């Protein structure tokens, strides 16, 4: 495992050919830079408790760093708003941020427009970078998500994963002692849930196995769990007509036809119906766990629930791990360096532990576990999720993935509503491929 | 064949259905804003006890006080500017004869066909240029939030349509008394245009109050952000606290409703007299 990590580290942090020379040249300049007194802005999407926690972390950094770097944390809207703001900022040459939260496909678009810079030289810098031990401490698959052709377009401060939430009390009422191990088990449980409503459900007319959110990440999680992927092995082309995609959609279509599941009709419907005992399973982000917990308490149903990975096809589970990273915006070299130093500080285990406690996100440093022992005890479900970090797999990082996500969602609806799945996936594959053609 | 009574029933029935469709979301918003989180999750129809705390919590958590004040200032500036510039632009297009008048008016109308999203980037580039090259701070400040919206093609069109309907004899009489265009516009036309001016003001006010994408683009701090941003910020990244969201939504909607009810009669009159009715 250590050897594998080391190899992956090398793959991530080393560039090849001319790129390496360019990085070395950059590094030579980097070592001579002085980030003293730099003022930088960090654009993010966090609100309320998460923003408060992040602002506290920023204040601590501003007080404690040796270079008198001053970071200003700024909420600038949701991911889409940030994307718009970045694009107009890049176009007008007036980018006011030094750090920006971005999904991988967004970061790639910024990089192609020279709006952000490669983080590799900063990571490898002997003076400012990470030691080999520190590098190995990062979950390598998380770093890989932001690495496109040797270019580190982002750096992860946290991650979330797609989990299966289950109502254990209801499963027991149905004669099971745990969550489904396979998709066949899952289907059987959904059928039974349709027949036998949960004892504590106040609305017995609504009793389903699952609510399917028409979202590309939901489908990706199902496909990954079956051993498939949304792209080819090299990650260079979409593979949306694979047997795993087909099997996932067929299962959902059959369960829909049998009225054992339904489609999410409104925001947070899966959470609402799960906490009120109307659905047996919910597939959702790990970061939503506190809301499930408080929801079950607030409704007064107080049933036993749990989280696990989606049902699996192979010997080991695979979970869809996703989340926005932080990119370094192009600007004066001193500002870029100051931004990197903050980012490095933010991902150190001590800060990671504080951030996890406030946000319930998964940390990106393995050693954070030591700082979180009491948190695991207080939040056993979070501990389960943490244990699955090694099984993470990410969605495509291609620049047009946002557009493809919409295409996937349209195809999901068409397939589940009874369209010919082979034709639907053929059309999807064609349309997705067109988005990456020059 | 339907009798007059049947027709009346059909009309009233249709209108009631329309009213219900428009009113139910408001009623639901209001009811949900008084519920506990458990009640909103369980989708009960009526709250067992009115949770006034929701409003207090929403106000405190979202810092609505600051956003409210910002929205009021932005709306006041934008409405004043729009009324002034629309009146000054609509008058010559409606009442004065000059070469190229119709071409100018067609140009103004043509801008109505351009989707707002298309103009965002050029507007931002303009504002950024002004921020760099003029002594006024445009970004993160009220000018970027108000000035680009003070010239409204729709408002010019609406006022121009109304002004064309004003009898020409009024102008003839005014000229006999020695009145020029500026005096005629300010002393005779402006009072006559009360209803369409209030309509323009109302539309501008609603647009300014609800603006979200542009304020997010030109501001980085809460100092000048309007209430729509506060409301969006209040919607948490994960999880649903519908009861608090609805309390926030009621707070954000109330001023618009209040102003609408105050000028409802003139608003309807302004629309019907400008030839915009269906």
Structure commentary:
- The complex is a heterodimer of chains A (438) and B (278).
- With 438 residues, chain A is an alpha/beta fold.
- Chain A has 21 helices and 13 strands.
- In chain A, helix 3 runs antiparallel to helix 16 (349-359).
- Residues 1-17 of chain A have low confidence and may be disordered.
- Chain B has 278 residues and is mostly helical.
- In chain B, helix 11 crosses helix 15 (264-273).
- Chain B is built from 15 helices and no strands.
- The chains are: A alpha/beta (438), B mainly alpha (278).
- The interface between A and B is medium-sized, with 38 and 31 residues.
Largest interface, with Cβ-Cβ < 8 Å? A-B, 38 and 31 residues
Category from helices, strands and their pairing of chain A: alpha/beta
Write down how many β-strands of chain A occur, each being a DSSP E stretch of 2 or more residues. Answer: 13
SSE series of chain B: HHHHHHHHHHHHHHH
Provide the helix percentage of chain A.
40-55%
Instruction: Give the overall shape of chain A, derived from the CA principal axes.
Output: globular
What fraction of residues of chain B sit in β-strands?
under 5%
Roughly how many Å is the radius of gyration of chain B? 23 Å
Summarize the structure.
With 438 residues, chain A is α/β, with parallel strands linked by helices. Chain A has helices spanning 2-13, 17-31, 48-64, 79-92, 104-112, 120-124, 132-137, 140-145, 168-173, 183-195, 216-225, 243-257, 269-275, 289-299, 333-346, 349-359, 368-371, 373-378, 380-386, 401-416, 421-436, and strands at 39-44, 70-75, 99-102, 147-148, 151-152, 160-167, 208-212, 261-263, 279-285, 305-308, 319-322, 325-328, 392-393.
């Amino acid at each position: 495992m250590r050897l594998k990590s080391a190899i992956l580290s090398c793959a991530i942090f080393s560039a090849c050919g001319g790129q390496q020379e360019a990085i070395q040249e950059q590094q030579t300049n980097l070592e001579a830079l002085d980030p003293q007194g730099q003022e930088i802005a960090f654009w993010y999407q966090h609100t309320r408790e998460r923003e408060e926690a992040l602002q506290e972390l920023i204040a601590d950094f501003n007080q404690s760093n040796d270079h008198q770097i001053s970071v200003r944390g700024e909420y600038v809207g949701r991911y889409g708003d940030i994307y718009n703001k970045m694009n107009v900022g890049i176009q007008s040459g007036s980018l006011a941020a030094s750090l920006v939260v971005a999904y991988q496909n967004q970061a790639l678009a910024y990089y192609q427009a020279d709006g952000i810079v490669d983080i590799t030289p900063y990571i490898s810098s002997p003076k400012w970078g990470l030691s080999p031990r520190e590098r190995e401490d990062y979950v390598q698959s998380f770093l890989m998500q932001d690495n496109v052709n040797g270019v580190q377009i982002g750096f992860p401060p946290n991650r979330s994963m797609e989990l299966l939430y289950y109502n254990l009390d209801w499963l027991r009422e149905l004669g099971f002692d745990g969550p489904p191990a396979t998709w066949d088990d899952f289907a059987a449980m959904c059928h039974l849930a349709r027949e036998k409503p949960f004892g504590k459900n106040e609305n017995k007319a609504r009793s389903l196995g699952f609510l399917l959110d028409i979202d590309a990440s939901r489908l990706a999680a199902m496909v990954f769990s079956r051993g498939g992927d949304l792209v080819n092995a090299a990650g260079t082309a979409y593979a949306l007509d694979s047997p795993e995609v087909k099997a996932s959609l067929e299962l959902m279509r059959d369960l829909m036809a049998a009225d054992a599941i339904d489609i999410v009709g409104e925001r947070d419907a899966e959470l609402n119906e799960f906490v009120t005992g109307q659905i047996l399973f919910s597939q959702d982000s790990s970061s939503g766990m506190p809301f499930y917990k408080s929801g079950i308490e607030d409704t007064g149903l107080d049933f036993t629930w749990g989280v696990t990975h989606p049902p699996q096809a192979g010997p080991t589970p695979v979970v869809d791990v996703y989340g926005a990273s932080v990119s370094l915006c192009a600007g004066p070299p001193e500002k870029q360096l100051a931004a990197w130093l903050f980012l490095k500080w933010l991902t150190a285990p001590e800060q990671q532990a504080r951030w996890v406690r406030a946000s319930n996100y998964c940390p990106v440093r393995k050693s954070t576990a030591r700082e979180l022992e009491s948190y695991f005890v207080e939040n056993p479900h979070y501990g389960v999720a943490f244990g699955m970090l090694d099984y993470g797999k990410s969605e495509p990082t291609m620049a047009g993935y946002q557009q493809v996500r919409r295409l996937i969602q349209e195809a999901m609806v068409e397939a589940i509503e009874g369209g010919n799945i082979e034709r639907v996936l053929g059309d999807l594959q064609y349309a997705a491929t067109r988005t990456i053609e020059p | 064949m339907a009798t007059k009574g049947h027709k009346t029933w059909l009309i009233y029935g249709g209108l009631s259905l329309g009213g219900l469709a428009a009113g139910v979301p408001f009623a639901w918003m209001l009811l949900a804003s008084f519920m506990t989180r458990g009640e909103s999750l369980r989708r009960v129809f009526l709250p067992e006890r009115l949770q006034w705390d929701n409003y207090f919590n929403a106000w405190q958590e979202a810092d609505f006080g600051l956003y409210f004040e910002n929205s009021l200032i932005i709306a006041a500036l934008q409405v004043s500017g729009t009324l002034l510039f629309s009146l000054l632009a609509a008058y010559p297009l409606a009442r004065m004869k000059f070469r190229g008048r119709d071409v100018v008016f067609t140009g103004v109308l043509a801008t109505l066909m351009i989707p707002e999203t298309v103009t965002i980037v050029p507007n931002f580039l303009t504002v950024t240029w002004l921020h760099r090259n003029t002594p006024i701070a445009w970004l993160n400040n009220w000018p970027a939030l108000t000035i680009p919206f003070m010239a409204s093609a729709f408002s010019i069109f609406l006022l121009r349509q109304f002004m064309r309907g004003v009898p020409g004899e009024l102008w003839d009489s005014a000229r006999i008394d020695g009145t020029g265009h500026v005096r005629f516009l300010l002393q005779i036309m402006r009072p006559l245009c009360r209803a369409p001016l209030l309509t323009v003001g109302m539309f501008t006010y609603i647009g300014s109050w609800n603006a979200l994408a542009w304020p997010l683009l030109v501001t980085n701090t809460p100092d000048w952000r309007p209430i729509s941003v506060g409301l969006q910020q209040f919607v948490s990244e994960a999880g649903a606290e519908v009861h608090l969201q609805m309390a926030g939504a009621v707070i954000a909607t109330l001023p618009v409703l209040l102003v609408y009810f105050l000028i409802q009669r003139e608003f309807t009159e302004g629309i019907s007299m400008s030839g915009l009715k269906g």
